[in-house]
Amino acid sequence: MPDLPRPTSHFFVSQRLRLHYVDWGNHDKPPLLLVHGGRDHCRSWDPLALRLREDWHVIAPDLRGHGDSQWSPDGHYTMAAYIYDLAQLIHLLQLTPVTIVAHSLGGNIALRYTGIYPEAVRKLVAIEGLGPSPKVLAERAKIGIDERMRNWIEEQRALASRQPRRYASLEDACARMQEENPHLSPELARHLTEHGVMRNEDGSYSWKFDNYVRSWPPYDMAQEQIETLWSRISCPTLLIYGKDSWASNPQEDGRIRHFRHARVEVVEGAGHWVHHDQPERFLQLLQDFL
Predict the structure, then answer these.
(1) Domain span at residue 64?
(2) CA distance linking residue 101 with residue 158, whole number of Å
């Protein structure tokens, strides 16, 4: 997007990490946070930010271990740390009450944050952000903590020896991006790739995210505690799902009952990345909601 307005880059400190975010200006407008998902980056929101920047003060952070934010020195990425980072950004920039639009991992973070600080969020949109379905959780519950810990330790060892994949050209990396999500247009795939890779010393390209973000800690908040946080959300909440996605619809699996003011929208012709797969339909839903 060479001829279009661009955001300015900024940094803040959270738990000694230097974390990055972009700001699209218009500080006199209501604040709107765009929070990306796992193995993604803040510039994936650019097409949406360009459409919203006239009416909103749009800010998009890079999660720790992603984009231009620092990696966790111990390779450990917990939901508590992600939530703290979001709370720290909102606190430092004095954004409350803030409107949040978040995808996948970002949606999970934003939903929990809003349950902790319900008074801080004006409206919330989560794109496939509720995490594993009840069916998946039930299967996981059958695995004892000893086995989970052993699996996690083995996974950490495997990641320690895993080298970031190198692509000979930007075009090769872009092809991998489109392989991951066939719904992407060539233009958007190129944009996501350009901002999602770094140049290695030998001239090759690698993704910016830390390989350790692929690994989930062996334990988290209990599901009942997460559901309690969902029930504390007091602002209007929109949960968006793609018809072609692997994610479980909370309207069908029963999770919607934990929310006081939420509704579910399912978008045809979209997978997990609804905002990329059907951008015009997503924008319509978002603007109507906001």
Answers:
(1) 8-132+217-289
(2) 34
